[in-house]
Design goal:
Elements lengths: L1 H4 L3 H4 L6 H12 L5 E8 L5 E12 L4 E9 L1 H51 L4 H5 L19 E7 L4 E8 L4 H19 L5 H18 L6 E9 L2 E5 L5 E4 L5 E4 L20 E5 L5 E3 L3 H4 L9
Antiparallel strand pairs: 1-2, 2-3, 4-5, 5-6, 6-7, 7-10, 8-9, 8-11
Length: 307
């Protein structure tokens, strides 16, 4: 009834944002420019907003003309379309976020690669040089290290003076930057302690363990280090510290395996380890060969995945 009795009823219930466009279409129809078809929103009595597809046409003769129209409810289709458009926008935002994260990851990877490369170079630079090893008299020494990843936690060193030679061999748990940094830290601490003077196994490992223990907590990491030191003097090797077993191949071909499990304790696990430190002594004769290694040797696999 209100549609008929109230002339402005239909126009008053147009959505405010669509009124100008609807007026334009209706004016075009009133000017005999043919039927006009358009989509617009209207506000219901219960304040709901519905979408309509409306067709208006000017009918009648010169004496009496009026606009007639047909309205079809397309609310469901419009809402489905809006949902699809919103999903498309959400997808675009999602893809944009993925791209942003991917770009950020690339930048972070580049930064990490640079840090790993620097750490790797530092590790290589701090290894004993062949020319220095050749200067040590009465011993033929050879060593090599190849990290399975960019930076590993393996460590070895050779430090000599006029009377003796100390060999260090160790392994930091894990791989990557943290392990590499701790391996460098251990190498520096070992050389500093050796340069400080008299060598005593228990005192040496007590100080070295405290350095690793304190620094790993500063770094907020749970790495620890297995380490053996082999002190050679006057054809006698004194082994201290826990690591892999030490192999000795005698000149006559006899193989000896010397376990180090009872000679120490992993560095960085406990605040005090001096009570765990012990020594083992192995005499060497000309022609004998001593081999020390990390678990990279025993855990290595070939391309077929066989150890």
């Amino acid at each position: 009834l209100k549609w008929i009795s109230t002339p402005a009823f239909w126009f008053d219930h147009l959505h405010p944002e669509d009124r100008t466009a609807v007026q334009s279409y209706c004016a075009a129809a009133a000017e005999s420019r043919g039927p006009q078809r358009f989509e617009h929103r209207m506000i219901c009595a219960d304040e709901r907003v519905v979408w309509l597809r409306t067709s208006v046409l000017l009918v009648g003769d010169n004496e009496k003309r009026e606009l007639v129209g047909v309205m079809t409810d397309i609310t469901d289709r419009k809402r489905a379309q809006e949902d699809a458009e919103e999903a498309s926008r959400a997808k675009s935002r999602f893809l944009a976020e993925i791209k942003r994260l991917n770009d950020e990851l690339k930048r972070e990877n580049s930064r990490m690669s640079a840090e790993l490369e620097v750490t790797q170079r530092l590790q290589q630079m701090m290894l004993p040089r062949d020319e220095d090893l050749r200067r040590i008299t009465n011993l033929d020494i050879s060593g090599s290290m190849e990290a399975a990843t960019e930076v590993g936690g393996d460590y070895y060193d050779v430090v000599s003076n006029e009377k003796s030679v100390v060999f260090g061999i160790g392994d930091v748990t894990g791989h990557g930057l943290e392990s590499g940094v701790i391996a460098i830290m251990v190498q520096t601490a070992v050389r500093t302690l050796l340069a400080s003077g008299h060598y005593e196994s228990w005192k040496f490992f007590e100080v070295l363990n405290r350095v690793v223990y304190d620094n790993t907590r500063l770094m907020n990491c749970d790495r620890n280090v297995t380490l053996s030191l082999l002190h050679y003097q006057d054809r006698l090797v004194t082994i201290s510290g826990q690591h892999e077993e030490v192999l000795v191949v005698r000149e006559n071909g006899t193989l000896e395996r010397h376990d180090t499990v009872n000679l120490g304790f992993p560095l960085g696990l406990e605040e005090k380890i001096s009570n765990f430190i012990a020594e083992a002594r192995i005499p060497l004769q000309p022609g004998d060969v001593m081999v020390v290694y990390t678990d990279g040797i025993t855990e290595a696999i070939n391309r077929a995945g066989v150890a």
